[in-house]
């Protein structure tokens, strides 16, 4: 009978005890509650010693006043990717040490200014991709003097007003990102004038109001940026207007400009480059854009107006249309760029007139481009992860370019005897050719000046020592 009572007690305890849904680790300082389908904060499972709590990717609907009441040491709170529509004004009243709060991609209908007021140590606040309709910050934001990283906005923010960010005028940020509706309706000149930051991100489509770009560039001209990024500048249509909407870009002082996604034609790209060639920006990355020439574009035979683009680094990444390399039939995108990286731009070969313009390139990276033929002349050439087959063609590459020292042709289809004859190399000191399909006879076509040779994973079944006897 006593055993039966004991067993019943154990069974009852098992039914009553909640299943632990969070993993407590780092000596009780961290809680991993990611993706547990939680509809409420599991308060009873969170010890008071916690400093870092991750509740992202759950089904939380709100943050209540007592959810984090017993976590006085909390410094990092991640609530991104939930469905939070409301944060109680006292939600963080007992978390004075909180430094990082992430509520990205929720359903907040207003900026939770009241809840943020007591967080004087807050350094990072990520609250973009929510459902509030205005980006206006309350005056209480001026007290967040330690704030460094701020992202805000969402698909329902139809525009920006001049007073929206005034509370930030005395705060020096490290990064600031703003997201607006893809159907931007208005932008009051001066809206971004008070923002002082090293990194600036714009996620807003100006399809309906292309002229606002001129005002935005004017507003940020007095900053000294490390990076500026435009995301989805034109989301639904290609720009065909005559106004140079990139004018003012030449007044921007930034190390790097990133153009991410969006629709670009030769008309818009030319406007950007025309202003870059007389500006201060030193690096340009164009990635994931949907590039297409205008239906009315025709080759008139005239020279490109992009003749003096002097930048340190040009990246063309993940662009499905290789026409971007010479978008107006004359400009080749590499003029006076010391470092050129072309990745995942799928072409079988690069037009010869593109290579002619690469005399000033010191480092060329055309990896992951499905390249089969090539003509390039840089000192450091990365042609890995393509479909090159001929060592003889590669040797021709160096015949009149004596500065080439490092050649990376790994992950290609090199090494057959048929395509490895009559090779004439000059000055190659480092050859990286792993993950090819070499036969022993092909070794005789390798440069004898190499000091470093990598032929690993090339399926060599025997080694002809003649090459090594000829080497230096």
UniProtKB/TrEMBL annotation:
GO terms for biological process: inflammatory response; toll-like receptor signaling pathway. Residues 1-21 form the signal peptide. It comes from the Eukaryota. SMART domains: LRR_TYP. Keywords: Glycoprotein, Leucine-rich repeat, Membrane, Repeat, Signal, Transmembrane, Transmembrane helix. It is found in: Membrane. One of its GO terms (cellular component) is plasma membrane. InterPro entries: Leu-rich_rpt, Leu-rich_rpt_typical-subtyp, LRR_dom_sf. GO terms for molecular function: signaling receptor activity. It is a single-pass membrane protein. This is Uncharacterized protein. The lineage of its organism: Eukaryota, Metazoa, Chordata, Craniata, Vertebrata.
């Amino acid at each position: 009978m006593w055993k039966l009572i004991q067993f019943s007690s154990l069974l009852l305890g098992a039914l009553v005890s909640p299943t632990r849904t969070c993993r407590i680790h780092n000596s009780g300082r961290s809680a991993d509650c990611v993706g547990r389908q939680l509809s409420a904060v599991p308060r009873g499972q969170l010890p008071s010693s916690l400093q870092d709590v991750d509740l992202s990717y759950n089904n939380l609907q709100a943050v209540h006043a007592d959810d984090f009441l017993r976590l006085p040491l909390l410094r990092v709170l991640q609530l991104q990717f939930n469905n939070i529509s409301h944060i109680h004004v006292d939600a963080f009243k007992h978390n004075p040490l909180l430094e990082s709060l992430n509520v990205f991609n929720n359903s907040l209908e207003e900026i939770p200014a009241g809840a943020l007021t007591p967080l004087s140590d807050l350094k990072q606040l990520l609250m973009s991709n929510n459902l509030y309709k205005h980006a206006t910050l309350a005056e209480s934001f001026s007290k967040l003097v330690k704030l460094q990283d701020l992202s805000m906005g969402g698909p329902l923010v139809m525009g920006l007003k001049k007073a929206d960010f005034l509370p930030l005028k005395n705060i020096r940020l490290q990064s600031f990102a703003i997201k607006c509706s893809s159907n931007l309706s208005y932008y009051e000149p001066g809206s971004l004038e008070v923002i002082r930051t090293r990194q600036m991100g714009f996620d807003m489509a100006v399809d309906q109001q292309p002229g606002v770009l001129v005002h935005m560039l004017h507003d940020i001209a007095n900053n000294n940026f490390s990076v500026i990024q435009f995301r989805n500048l034109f989301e639904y249509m290609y720009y065909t207007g005559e106004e140079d909407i990139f004018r003012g870009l030449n007044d921007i002082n930034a190390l790097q400009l990133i153009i991410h996604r969006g629709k670009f034609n030769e008309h818009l790209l030319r406007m950007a480059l025309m202003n870059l060639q007389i500006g201060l920006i030193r690096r340009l990355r164009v990635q994931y854009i949907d590039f297409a020439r205008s239906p009315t574009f025709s080759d008139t035979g005239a020279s490109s107006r992009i003749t003096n683009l002097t930048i340190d680094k040009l990246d063309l990444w993940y662009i499905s249309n290789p026409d971007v390399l010479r978008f107006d039939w004359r400009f080749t995108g590499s003029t006076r760029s010391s470092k050129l990286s072309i990745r995942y731009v799928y072409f079988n070969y690069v037009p010869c007139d593109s290579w002619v313009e690469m005399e000033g390139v010191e480092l060329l990276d055309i990896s992951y481009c499905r390249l089969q033929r090539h003509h390039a002349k840089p000192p450091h050439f990365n042609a890995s992860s393509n479909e090159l087959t001929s060592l003889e063609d590669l040797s021709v590459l160096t015949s009149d370019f004596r500065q080439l020292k490092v050649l990376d042709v790994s992950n290609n289809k090199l090494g057959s005897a048929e395509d490895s004859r009559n090779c004439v190399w000059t000055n190659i000191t480092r050859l990286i050719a792993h993950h090819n399909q070499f036969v022993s006879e092909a070794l005789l076509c390798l440069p004898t000046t190499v000091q470093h040779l990598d032929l690993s994973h090339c399926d060599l079944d025997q080694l002809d020592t003649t090459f090594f006897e000829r080497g230096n």
